[in-house]
User: Fold Amidohydrolase from Streptomyces cyaneogriseus subsp. noncyanogenus.
Amino acid sequence: MRTSLILLSARLLDPATGAFLPQTALAAADGRITALGDDREIRALADASTTVIDLGGAVVTPGLVDGHVHPVSGAELTHGLDLSGCGDLDQVREALARAVRDLAPGAWLQGWGLDPNVFGERPVGIAPFDAVLDGIPALLLLFDAHSMLASRRALDIAGVDGPRTFDQATAEVVCDADGRPTGLLLEDAACELVERVAPQPTREERRDRLAAALRAMAATGLTGGHVMDANGDSLAFYAELDAAGQLPLRLRVAPWCQPGTGEDGVRALIEQQGTGGALWRTAGVKIFMDGTIDNGTAWLERPDCHGESTHAFWPDPEEYTRVVGMLHRAGVPTATHAIGDAAVRHVLDAVEKAQAGGVRGVRHRIEHIETVPDDTLRRFAGLGVVASMQPTHCCDFTRADHTDNWSRRLGEERAARAWRCRDLHDSGAVVVLGSDWPIAPYPPLGVMAGARHRRPTRDLTRAPHGPEQALTALEALRGMTVNAAYAAGEERVSGRIAVGHRADLTVLADDPLTVPATELAELPVLLTVLDGRPTHRDAAL
Assistant:
């Protein structure tokens, strides 16, 4: 077995203990760490084909893993006009006007990252942009990616002129009192009415965008991701990039199970488990229990201030419970999108019912968990349900004074229970961290920083939202290493720097445990290693 990679003069950080290992060098072969030791003995393992890198005292962590990410849809949805930096309606109008000036006649304008907070107290709709988008077919994706605004011209082209009925209970073509669409489309089923008539990129363009996005992720220190969809050509793209040696992240993919899937569809999902390639595989199933608080499609135990967020995503929530039971008995872990308190409670109840059948050891997860009451906290640990959290959503889409759309909808009591990372951790839950890109930026150091400071990343001088829910530096690092490995059932081969573990590594210019939270996002990533080969290398090395 030939040694493929050697790293020397390293500080090897163990996220399980928070301490540095006594060794200063490691060797890798066949994608695994094969030896740890001092520089001299590890250097002796090299031959002419070995890549030897002197790190000059840089810090090596296990490869950072995004616990919730959408690479293919992210690469597609973030193409076009970036509206994420717009803070009010005037800024959005200015951005749209600039884009319209450069638009070819008849072309569609696509935007993404629109924050509903720009509307203030006004209802979310296309009306404030009618003048600038007059005659222009446009689709503006809101930041949550569960809703979008369609211009009048886009609605006309799609033939959407009134309300519709959907299998997805929370999907809606929002209309005014006269039954005319306001431009707001809620959830995939409604959005697809207009999306399907918009111009589509070629398959090659989509694959190239994905490859570029994955390379950019590797440059931020990511070595893996728990992918929460397998839509369209996703699996084919992963297979093609993997076969060509161009897949720079190790991907664990959970295909969706939607309302109406039926028993045959569930069995097909079960049979699909474990399929994949060298660096990707299908593992688990992603299910939605609700939508989002910001657009009124979450499932809350009490309605929001607009009387919305009162329904589950599944028209019959008990059908969801039956699906979870089928998957559980087959040993298939589920990852359920549950944002509202009623949604979270129903998922926990479903897992408890599934476990009552005698099968244990299946590691189910709940994704997002944006607001939950006290009595649900300890149920996570009791049922072995992993808490998958995206703290940068709290940082960037809510405010400490609760004047944001999310907080106003919930009211003070529930807004004070925002993203309870600390409480879930302290109650014994395994907390995994992720970005939910393209909803929020994917750089993992920014995700870990947000878990610690809980401040708006655009202005770190502003007050934090719920600072009592912050994680420590070590807890945040564990959320993207050892805990991510546990959630995937891979703790014996991943998440630690140990002989026999995967040679998936992230190399940083300094110790992420001592760098201040407000500075962590800017810490240089010097090297990213996947399966024993560098996928990113800073020019300084």
Q: What stands out?
A: The first strand starts at residue 5 and ends at 8. DSSP finds 19 helices and 26 strands in the chain. The mean pLDDT is 96. The chain has two domains: 80-196, 203-530.
